C-alpha cells in the first residue's frame, strides 16, 4: 500500500482541540488529565465505543502491543512517559496494520513514512499537546483499507451511539462527518415541469425526480447532490441490440462539399411551447415513495453526511414524459429543469394529474452534480447553460462533444467494446418510458418517428460533423460555465476517450472558476473506492466547501491536476497543468522502419484486406487483432496490413504530455480511404491492469449503511510486450476538418494531419516508442475488408511528440 | 427464463382467504365487493402501497395494459367481467414481464406456461373466488427476477408501511414473511465457554459468538440460524501462502505395511479438562457490540423474517481462545458448544474476564446451521454429535471426510485451484486469533508447535489415510445424526469434490430423518440467488417447518433429490434418489482406442514425463494442460502421456448416475506409480458455464435491507469440444485401500480398481464417452516430472458405467 492523501486540511493545536471537542474526544472528563498516557487511554476507550463496557474496551486495548514487552493497556495504565514510537505502534494497529505481518513493533515511524502516512510533528517524548495533535492527525489518516480512522470509527458506530449529541452538519478537519440517520431517510418522488414538450403531446414534459434526504432537512435546509442518469429507470437492452448497426460494410467515396462551419451550425429553432400547467394547490407532502434507487456509492457516502441526493433520468424515461434525444439541448433542459426546481425557480407536482405543487423547501439551493459517463456528460451539458445554483460538477469520464464519442475526423468510430452503437441505439436503449405498457402503445408511432430522425441526423453513411452533431457539442458553450469543475478521466478509457476531457479542460481554462482534474490509469471506471488515493475525502472537502460554504481551503489543498503514474502501482503525482510539455520533438519515419531525427526518402505500403478466416476471427477477438497488428513478428497474418516505425530504446525515462500529432502524406488505391495511427510503448515489462482489482475488503459508507468494495490497479502477473498509448483515425476526405469533404482520387498523394488521443504517458528507459500506421480498426471503425492499398511518403510524414522530462 | 418453484404450498379458497386477510389484502373494505374487477382493482391499489396517494396508484395501475384496447385502470373501473386473460395480462406485468418485449398482450397464459409459472385453475370469466385464488397464487409466483411477487412487494415497502400491524412471525403460504424491522436489530457479542482447552493454558476456551436478532426477541423467543465460519474473523493469507507446500516433487516408493483399520483408528484420548469458570453474576445485557458482520445473504434474508442469526468462528480465531485444528473433534466441539448455549445447556459470558453469565434467553431452542464449504463441513461435524436442538443443516458444498478433501487413494490430492494446500495451511490461514498482536506474541511458540503437529499428522510424504485423517472423518459418526439434512452440492465442484456429498448422502440413507439433496451444475458456489429455481423459498418453507413448527408439508413438497440438467439452461428435475441406475454397463478398452462390449487383448503404454518447457507451462496453466491431455490431436505435446479410449457416438441420450468404476491391470517402470482416470464427454457442442453469470439485477432480502445479485448458469457463447465428467486417482501401492500400503515392483502387473467422483451426467446422442488414462494431474497431484512408463493390460481392464435411461 502507498497512501496519497490530498484532503487533510491544515490544523493547529487550537483547531485540534476545538474539533476533538466537537466529536467528543475531548470533554470535561479530559480537562483534568495531566499525563499523556492517560489521555491516550481515554481516547482509546472512546474509540472503542462508550456503548461497550469498560472491561470489553480494556480487553480490546490490551489486544494491541505498545512495545515488544507490553500490551497497550498495561503500558498506558502505568502512566509512564508516552514515546512517539509507542504512540505510532498503537496507531498502526488502529489503522489495521498487523504486527509482524505488516510492520515491526520497534519501527512504526519508518513504516508510516514508507506507506506515505502522515506522522505528527511531535516530541519523541510526547506531551499533552503532542498527544492531542497526533491523535487529531491520526483520526484523519487513511488506514490499510483506504478510509480515514475517523470514518472507520464511524462505521463501527462511534457517531451512531448517540447521533443526537452531535451538531449537524458536523465538520471535522474540513470534511463533513456521517452523523445522520440513514435508517430514516425521507424517500419521495416529484414530477418537475420542464420547459419542453419533446413528445409533442401539447403538454410540457413532466420529469420524474427521486429524492432521498435526511429527516433533519424538514427543519434545516441541506445541500443537494443531483445525479442525472438516463439509465436509472431501466434500459431496453434488446431494443439497443436490435438496432445496433452492421459495421462490416465498406467505406465509400463521399461527394466533396465546400462546407464551412456556418453550413452545419446547429440552428436554435425554438418551437412554441404549451402553456405551463395551472397550479391547483400546494403541499409539502409528496404522494409517491421510492424503494431501492439505483445509486452511486459516492452519493450514498454523502447521504450519511446530511446531503440530499436527487436522481432524475430525464425525458423519455420510465414514468417521465417526452422522448429521448441523445445529448441535444432538450436533454440539457431536462437536467437544468431539476436544478431549477431545487433552487426554487421551477414548478414540480406531486403527481401527473392533480397539478398539486410541491417545492424543494428542504434544499439550501446549493447543488452539485455527480456521476460517470452519460451521467457525467449531462453535468457538462447542464454546466454550459450557466444555470444558477449548480455550484460544481464532479464529472467522471464525461463526454464533452458527442461527435468525439461516436465519430472521428469524418469516420464512424465506435466507443471501445460497442461496435455498431450510435446515438439512435443509445436513445432506444434508454427509452425506459416504454416499460410502462400503456405509454409504449400510446406513443409507439411518434417514438419511431423520433428515433428515425436521430438515425437520419447522425448520418452514419458520411461520418461527417453536421448540424446534428453540432447540436450535441457542449464545447461551444463552455464559456458559459459558472460551476466549478472537478473532472476525472481514465487515460485508458477507450469508451469515452480522453479527448473528451481534454477539450473541456482546455475550454474552461480561461474561465474564472475553480477547476480540478484527476487522470487515472483505468478505463471507464469509478475511482471512489481506491486504496492509494483519498478521492472520496477530496470530494468531501470540495463539497463541504462548495455546498456548505465551509472555509476549508479546498481549492488550495487539492492540486489542480493529479495524474497516476503508469509504471508503478499506487503512485499519484500532483501537477499544476496537463499538456505542459518541455518541448515538441519531431521524428521522421525511415526506410528501416525507424523513427529518426532526420527525414528519409522513399515510400512504404500496406494493404487493408485480410483473408476471410482471419476477418471472422478478428471480428470476434479484438485482442487477437491488436496483438497481430502491433507485434512485429514476421509470421503474423497482419504483417502486410500495417507499417511500424520505432525509436531506438529510450536512454532515459520521459513523459509524453498531451496530444501527439502525426503529419502524413499518403495515397490510397481507391478514391476513398481511412488511415489509423497508433502510438505504442514497446518493451517487455510489467504493466498495470486497466481494470481495478477488488482487494477483498468492504468500504462502509456510514454505520451499517451501504457499502463499496476496496479496489486498486495492480501490476499484471506477467510481462507484456507492448502497451498502446494513443490512437487516431482519419477519413482521407476529411483532411481539412470533420465537416468539409475534400475530393480524392485513387493513387493521388494528399497531405493530412492527425491528432492522437491526448495522454500523459511515462515511457521507461530501454523501451521503444512505436508508430503503427494501418487502416481498418476492428474494434472501432467500419470493417469493409476492402481491397485498398495505402502508400505513405516518408519524407513528407512525421510525428510530433510533446515531451516532458521526468 | 424457465421457472422451477418447489416451495408453493397447497392452498384452497379457505386458506387463501385467511392468509390474504393476514397480509391485509382482504379486510372489511373488501367484504362488500361484489364484482371481480373491483376486487382486483382493490388488490392492485393495495399492491401499490397505501402510503401512496390514490392518484399515484391510479397512475401506476394505468401504466399497465389489460388488453390491446385498454389500460388496466380504465378496464377495471368499468367493472366489466374479468377474464382470465385480462387477469394474466396484468399479472405478467406485475411480475415485470414487458409487453411487446417479453409477451404478447393477447396470449399471457401460453406465456405463463412457457415460463413454467403456475396458472390458477379458474374460470375463463373469473368470479370473486377465482379472483381471490388467482391473486393468492400470483403473490406466490416468481417474477422475472427470481423472487415471489409478495417478496417483491415487501421489498417495495408493502409490509414496512406498517410493520406493527402484522402478527409476528407472519406465515404466508407456509413461508415466513419479512415483517421485522431490520433497522433496529440487536447486535451483540458473547463468549461461550466450551469443554476444551486447545491452547493448553489451563482455562476452558472462550469462543466469541456474534448475535444479530430482532428486537422482538427480547419478548418473544425466536429460532436461530447459526453459521460457524472459521473465515469470519479474518484470514492470514500471507501465512497460508508461505506455508503452501511445494508440489513439484517426485512420488516415492512406500514401505509396505499390513495395516488394518484398527492400526489407524483415531483414539479418543480425552485429556483432563480445566474446571469451568465460576459464574460471578448473571445478566441479560451484553457488553460488546458488533459492526458489519461478514454475512451470508441467505442469513440476511431470514433476519428480515424474524430469525436470529449467530456467527461464531471457533477455536483459534480473532477474539476467541484456543488453536486451530482443521476439522478434528475439538473443532466440532467448538461448533456444538454454541448450539448448546443457544439451547440453554452451556454457559456464556459477557466478556473474557468478569465471569458474568449471559443466557440466550431470546432463543426458542430450535437451531439450524447454514453455510458453504468449511461452513458446511462444520455443520456435518456438529450434526454427527447428535447435539440436541440442532434441527437441521443446510450444508452447501460441505466436506464429509477431510481425507476426501486433501487426499485420494494414498495420494496427496489438492482441492482444485489450491495446489500445495493442506490441513496445516488451512489452520495457519484461519488462525485469526493472531491478528490480535498481544495474543500473537503470547502464544507464538505454542501455536507453532500445534501447527507442526498438524503438518506431521497429515503425512504428506505417504498420502495414506491414518489416525490424523480418521479423526477428521465425519462419516464414521453419521449414524448419530438427528438433525434433518438438506445437502447442496455442485456436480462440477473440484474444490470440495462430489464424493463428499455422496458419502454423507449414502451414510444418512438408513436414518430416520428428513433428507434432501440438490445437485447443481456449478463449481464451488452458492445457489441462493438463481433465477430458475426457488432455492431461497424452499429453505424458507423448510425452516418455517423445522424451526417454527409450522405444519406446511415441507418434507413432502420439496422433492428428495433435485438435479440440474447439464445440457440445457435453467432446467431442474426432481427425483426420488441419486445413484439409482437402471443398469451397470461394462465396457472394455481396445487396441483401436475404443470402448467396446467385448474385451480385447494387448497392451497400451504411456509415459509420465514432459519436456521442461511444457512442464513450466502446464504448472502455470491448468487449462492448457487439460486441453492437451484430453484433445486427441496428434500434434499435441501430451500425445504419449495418456491413452484415450472412446465409445461410438451415442445413439440416444442417457445419463450416468453415480460412480463410474475403473478396473485396471497395470504396471509401472518404477517400483512406485500413480494412475489417474478421467471420464470425458466428447462432442462439439454448447455447454453450460460452471460459474453463474450475474444477470444485472438486484435481489432485495427485505425492504431497504441487504442485497444479492441475481445469477444463472448460461450456455457458453461458443461450442466446446469436450467436457470432463469425473476423475479419479490412485497410488498403485494403495491397491487394497487408502491406509494399507502394498508392495510394488517395477514392471510387475497389478490389479486395481478405482471409483471416479460420483456424477449425474446427461450425455447427448451423438456424443462419445471417453476414458483418459494418465498419471500426473497438474492441477491436483504432485508433479515430479519423473521418468516413469505405465502399461495397461487391456484384457484385464474395464469401465463400469451406472446407466440411467433418459
TrEMBL record, chains A, B:
Any Pfam family: PepX_N
Record's keyword annotation contains Protease: yes
Catalysed reactions, semicolon-separated: Hydrolyzes Xaa-Pro-|- bonds to release unblocked, N-terminal dipeptides from substrates including Ala-Pro-|-p-nitroanilide and (sequentially) Tyr-Pro-|-Phe-Pro-|-Gly-Pro-|-Ile
SUPFAM superfamilies per UniProt: alpha/beta-Hydrolases, Galactose-binding domain-like, X-Prolyl dipeptidyl aminopeptidase PepX, N-terminal domain
Class of enzymatic activity (EC top level): hydrolase
Domain X-Prolyl dipeptidyl aminopeptidase PepX N-terminal per the UniProt entry, residue ranges: 1-158
Keyword hit for Protease: yes
GO MF annotation, one: ligase activity
Top-level lineage group: Bacteria
UniProt keywords, alphabetically: Aminopeptidase, Hydrolase, Ligase, Protease, Serine protease
Enzyme Commission identifier(s): 3.4.14.11
InterPro entries per the UniProt record, alphabetical: AB_hydrolase_fold (IPR029058), Galactose-bd-like_sf (IPR008979), Pept_S15_Xpro (IPR008252), PepX_N_dom (IPR015251), PepX_N_dom_sf (IPR036313), Xaa-Pro-like_dom (IPR000383), Xaa-Pro_dipept_C (IPR013736)
Subunit organization: Homodimer.
Family statement: Belongs to the peptidase S15 family.
Stated role: Removes N-terminal dipeptides sequentially from polypeptides having unsubstituted N-termini provided that the penultimate residue is proline.
Name recorded for this polypeptide: Xaa-Pro dipeptidyl-peptidase
Organism: Apilactobacillus apisilvae
Lineage start: Bacteria, Bacillati, Bacillota, Bacilli, Lactobacillales
Amino acid at each position: 500500500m502507498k497512501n496519497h492523501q490530498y484532503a487533510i486540511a491544515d490544523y493547529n493545536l487550537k483547531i485540534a482541540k476545538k474539533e476533538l471537542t466537537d466529536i467528543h474526544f475531548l470533554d470535561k472528563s479530559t480537562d483534568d488529565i495531566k499525563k499523556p498516557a492517560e489521555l491516550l487511554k481515554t481516547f482509546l476507550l472512546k474509540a472503542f465505543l462508550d456503548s461497550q463496557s469498560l472491561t470489553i474496551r480494556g480487553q480490546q486495548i490490551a489486544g494491541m502491543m505498545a512495545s515488544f514487552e507490553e500490551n497497550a493497556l498495561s503500558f498506558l495504565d502505568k502512566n509512564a512517559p508516552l514515546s512517539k514510537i509507542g504512540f505510532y505502534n498503537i496507531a498502526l494497529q488502529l489503522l489495521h496494520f498487523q504486527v509482524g505481518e505488516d510492520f515491526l513493533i520497534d519501527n512504526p515511524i519508518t513504516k508510516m513514512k514508507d506507506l506515505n502516512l502522515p506522522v505528527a510533528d511531535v516530541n519523541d517524548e510526547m506531551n499533552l499537546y503532542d498527544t492531542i495533535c497526533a491523535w487529531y492527525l491520526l483520526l484523519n489518516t487513511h488506514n490499510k483499507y483506504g478510509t480515514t480512522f475517523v470514518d472507520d470509527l464511524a462505521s463501527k458506530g462511534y457517531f451512531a451511539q448517540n447521533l443526537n449529541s452531535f451538531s449537524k452538519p458536523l465538520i471535522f478537519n474540513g470534511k463533513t462527518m456521517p452523523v445522520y440517520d440513514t435508517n430514516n431517510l425521507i424517500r419521495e418522488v416529484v414530477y418537475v415541469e420542464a420547459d419542453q414538450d419533446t413528445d409533442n403531446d401539447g403538454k410540457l414534459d413532466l420529469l420524474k425526480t427521486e429524492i432521498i434526504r435526511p429527516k433533519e432537512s424538514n427543519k434545516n435546509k441541506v445541500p443537494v447532490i443531483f445525479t442525472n442518469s438516463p439509465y436509472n429507470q431501466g434500459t431496453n437492452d434488446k431494443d439497443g441490440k436490435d438496432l445496433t448497426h452492421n459495421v462490416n460494410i465498406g467505406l465509400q467515396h463521399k461527394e466533396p462539399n465546400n462546407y464551412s462551419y456556418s453550413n452545419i451550425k446547429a440552428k436554435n429553432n425554438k418551437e412554441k411551447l404549451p402553456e405551463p400547467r395551472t397550479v391547483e394547490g400546494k403541499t409539502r407532502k409528496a404522494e409517491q415513495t421510492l424503494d431501492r434507487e439505483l445509486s452511486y456509492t459516492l452519493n450514498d457516502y454523502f447521504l450519511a453526511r446530511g446531503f440530499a441526493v436527487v436522481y432524475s433520468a430525464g425525458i423519455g424515461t420510465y414514468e417521465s414524459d417526452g422522448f429521448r434525444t441523445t445529448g441535444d439541448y432538450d436533454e440539457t433542459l431536462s437536467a437544468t429543469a431539476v436544478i431549477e426546481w431545487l433552487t426554487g425557480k421551477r414548478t414540480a407536482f406531486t403527481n401527473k394529474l392533480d397539478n398539486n405543487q410541491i417545492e424543494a423547501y428542504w434544499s439550501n439551493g446549493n447543488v452539485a452534480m455527480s456521476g460517470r459517463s452519460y451521467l457525467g456528460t449531462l453535468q457538462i451539458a447542464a454546466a454550459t447553460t450557466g444555470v444558477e445554483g449548480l455550484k460544481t460538477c464532479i464529472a467522471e469520464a464525461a463526454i464533452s462533444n458527442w461527435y468525439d464519442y461516436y465519430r472521428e475526423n469524418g469516420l464512424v468510430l465506435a466507443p471501445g467494446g460497442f461496435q455498431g452503437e450510435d446515438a439512435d441505439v443509445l436513445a432506444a436503449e434508454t427509452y425506459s418510458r416504454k416499460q410502462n405498457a400503456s405509454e409504449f402503445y400510446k406513443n409507439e408511432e411518434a417514438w419511431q418517428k423520433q428515433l428515425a430522425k436521430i438515425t437520419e441526423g447522425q448520418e452514419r453513411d458520411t461520418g461527417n460533423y453536421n448540424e446534428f452533431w453540432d447540436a450535441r457539442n457542449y464545447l461551444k458553450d463552455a464559456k458559459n460555465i459558472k460551476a466549478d469543475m472537478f473532472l476525472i478521466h481514465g487515460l485508458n478509457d477507450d469508451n469515452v476517450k480522453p479527448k473528451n476531457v481534454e477539450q473541456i479542460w482546455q475550454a474552461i481554462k480561461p474561465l474564472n472558476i475553480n477547476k480540478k482534474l484527476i487522470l487515472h490509469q483505468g478505463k471507464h471506471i469509478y475511482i471512489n473506492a481506491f486504496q492509494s488515493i483519498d478521492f472520496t475525502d477530496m470530494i468531501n472537502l470540495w463539497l463541504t466547501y462548495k455546498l456548505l460554504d465551509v472555509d476549508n481551503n479546498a481549492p488550495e489543498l487539492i492540486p489542480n491536476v493529479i495524474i497516476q503514474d503508469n509504471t508503478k502501482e499506487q503512485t499519484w503525482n500532483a501537477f499544476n497543468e496537463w499538456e505542459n510539455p518541455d518541448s515538441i520533438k519531431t521524428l521522421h519515419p525511415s526506410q528501416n522502419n525507424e523513427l529518426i531525427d532526420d527525414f528519409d526518402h522513399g515510400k512504404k505500403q500496406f494493404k487493408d484486406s485480410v483473408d476471410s478466416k482471419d476477418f471472422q476471427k478478428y471480428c470476434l477477438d479484438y485482442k487477437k487483432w491488436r496483438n497481430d497488428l502491433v507485434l512485429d513478428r514476421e509470421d503474423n497474418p497482419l504483417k502486410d496490413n500495417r507499417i511500424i516505425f520505432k525509436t531506438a530504446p529510450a536512454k532515459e525515462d520521459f513523459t509524453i504530455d498531451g496530444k501527439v500529432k502525426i503529419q502524413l502524406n499518403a495515397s490510397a488505391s481507391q478514391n476513398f480511404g481511412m488511415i489509423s495511427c497508433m502510438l505504442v510503448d514497446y518493451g517487455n515489462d510489467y504493466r498495470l491492469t486497466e481494470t481495478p482489482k477488488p482487494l477483498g475488503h468492504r468500504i462502509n459508507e456510514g454505520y451499517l449503511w451501504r457499502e463499496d468494495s476496496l479496489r486498486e490497479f495492480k501490476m499484471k502477473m506477467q510481462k507484456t510486450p507492448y502497451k498502446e498509448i494513443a490512437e487516431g483515425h482519419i477519413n482521407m476526405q476529411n483532411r481539412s476538418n470533420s465537416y468539409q469533404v475534400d475530393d480524392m482520387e485513387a493513387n493521388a498523394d494528399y497531405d493530412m494531419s492527425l491528432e492522437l488521443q491526448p495522454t500523459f504517458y511515462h515511457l521507461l528507459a530501454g523501451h521503444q516508442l512505436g508508430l503503427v500506421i494501418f487502416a481498418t480498426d476492428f474494434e472501432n471503425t467500419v470493417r469493409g475488408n476492402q481491397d485498398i492499398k495505402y502508400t505513405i511518403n516518408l519524407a513528407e510524414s512525421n510525428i510530433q511528440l510533446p515531451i516532458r522530462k521526468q
